[in-house]
């Protein structure tokens, strides 16, 4: 036996002990475990049958466990042996990737040995790298490549038709269709490139070499040195969902990030539903382009601010800490900018701006639906103009679905020259 219970061998060997004292929370008849695997669920709810099934399939079986009927922790599995917890923990992540359950396992050791942490990280690195490689050449990518092939065949067919004598009206129609298909094919290629560069960025973090370059030189994820397996898992899955959804803005992620890195003000125009309001904040928060301070996205209406915050929280579940996506639908003097992304009404930001002229705590302001040109938006933009001169670290992004970018820039210049 490599190690006994925490109270005997763990202490005798002088291993450091995890600050969380399990003796306080474990059931009275349960011996103090050396290792605890916590199974968390992103959504609060009741999942006793699912978690019981998962535990029954866990190999090796835990020495003991607790199942919770509600809350974010679904269960805690207790192990005495390192070899057992290691196999069980890696197995739980494997089955998570296989889609057998939706619980994120976290290991809390009561007895910490650095070589154990290294062993666990090595095993998980191998598993994650293997799965990422699978995703890079997976079914989803093949489906998009097939679509790309079909579009290319269609373009070739139209080019062949255009080579024959045609009536002018018909030739114009064919040309229009060909241009549309070319745009679609470009978009698919760019989306695939974004997807690969995001997964390669995670491979980099895991210390794995890869052949493809990471696009425009912008890191789409800013990952800390230590491995947060749950976060990495959710980032991978969100990339797969993004490719699957095929929102137009995804194809331009690195281009947009490059612009924001180098320019203080940017005007972003995209058709309705292209993903501006929900995706851009996440791109910024992931990439670390906006390092300190919050990213504030203003909306003309409260309902839009609340619904977007909910949507982004749902989409990015597991990718950031708990309260990092917030919403301030109305102004309060006690408001703090402690979230990474905050949706608010333009009226609320204007009030904040009047009371805190330097907008300390905010590093990026996104003014959405700028074409609506409300009085609040215009006043806000006027105040932001002065602020941008003082705060060179600050970024302003003006977004609209319907406006012409040049026309909007012109209006802004006029407004700022007043
Ligand atoms: N609260 C929500 N619930 C469900 N789906 C949503 C929600 N908000 C956005 N979506 C979906 O997410 C996608 C991107 O929406 P998003 O609002 O980011 O686009 P947009 O370019 O900002 O559009 P608009 O210019 O109309 O604001 C759309 O397909 C939309 O249907």
From TrEMBL:
| Enzyme Commission code | 3.6.4.13
Transmembrane stretches, start-end: none
- Taxonomically, the superkingdom here is Eukaryota
Catalytic activity field: ATP + H2O = ADP + phosphate + H(+)
Asked if Repeat is a keyword of the record, the answer is no
Q: Which InterPro entries has this protein been placed in?
A: DEAD/DEAH_box_helicase_dom, DNA/RNA_helicase_DEAH_CS, Helicase_ATP-bd, P-loop_NTPase
**Key words of the record:** Coiled coil, Hydrolase
Keyword Chloroplast annotated: no
What span is annotated as the signal peptide, if there is one?
A: none
Gene3D superfamilies recorded: P-loop containing nucleotide triphosphate hydrolases
Query: From the UniProt record, which GO molecular function terms apply?
Result: ATP binding; hydrolase activity; RNA binding; RNA helicase activity
Coiled coil start-end? 141-198
Q: Where is the Helicase ATP-binding domain?
A: 257-418
UniProt xrefs under PANTHER family: ATP-DEPENDENT RNA HELICASE, ATP-DEPENDENT RNA HELICASE DEAH11, CHLOROPLASTIC-RELATED
Please state what the protein is called: RNA helicase
């Amino acid at each position: 036996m490599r190690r006994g219970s925490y109270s005997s061998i763990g202490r005798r060997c002088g291993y450091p002990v995890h600050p969380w004292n399990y003796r306080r929370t474990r059931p009275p008849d349960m011996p103090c475990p050396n290792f605890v695997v916590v199974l968390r669920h992103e959504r609060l709810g009741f999942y006793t049958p699912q978690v019981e099934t998962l535990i029954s399939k866990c190999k090796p079986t835990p020495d003991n466990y607790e199942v919770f009927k509600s809350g974010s922790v679904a269960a805690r599995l207790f192990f005495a042996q390192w070899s057992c917890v290691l196999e069980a923990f890696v197995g739980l992540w494997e089955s998570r990737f296989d889609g057998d359950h939706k619980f994120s396992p976290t290991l809390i050791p009561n007895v910490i040995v650095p070589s154990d942490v290294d062993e666990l990280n090595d095993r998980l690195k191998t598993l994650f790298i293997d799965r990422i490689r699978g995703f890079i050449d997976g079914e989803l990518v093949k489906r998009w490549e097939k679509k790309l092939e079909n579009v290319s065949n269609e373009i070739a067919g139209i080019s062949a038709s255009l080579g024959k004598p045609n009536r002018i009206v018909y030739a114009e129609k064919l040309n229009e269709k060909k241009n549309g298909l070319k745009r679609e094919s470009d978009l698919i290629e760019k989306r695939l490139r974004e997807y690969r560069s995001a997964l390669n960025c995670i491979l980099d973090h895991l210390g794995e070499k890869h052949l493809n370059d990471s696009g425009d030189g912008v890191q789409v994820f800013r990952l800390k040195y230590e491995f947060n397996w749950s976060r990495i898992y959710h980032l991978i899955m969100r990339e797969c969902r993004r490719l699957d959804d095929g929102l137009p803005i995804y194809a331009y992620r690195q281009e947009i990030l490059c612009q924001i890195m180098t320019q203080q003000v940017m005007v972003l125009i995209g058709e309705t539903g292209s993903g501006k309001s929900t995706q851009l904040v996440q791109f910024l928060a992931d990439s670390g382009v906006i390092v300190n301070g919050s990213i504030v996205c203003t909306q003309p209406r409260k309902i839009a601010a609340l619904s977007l915050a909910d949507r982004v929280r749902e989409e990015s579940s597991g990718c950031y800490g708990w309260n990092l996506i917030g919403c301030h639908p109305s102004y309060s003097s006690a408001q703090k900018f402690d979230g990474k992304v905050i949706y608010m009404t333009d009226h609320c930001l204007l009030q904040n701006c009047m009371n805190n002229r330097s907008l300390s705590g905010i590093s990026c302001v996104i003014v959405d639906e700028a074409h609506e040109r409300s009085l609040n938006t215009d006043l806000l933009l006027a105040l932001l103009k002065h602020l941008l001169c003082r705060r060179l670290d600050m970024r302003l992004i003006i977004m609209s679905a319907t406006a012409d970018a040049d026309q909007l820039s012109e209006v802004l210049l006029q407004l700022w020259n007043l």
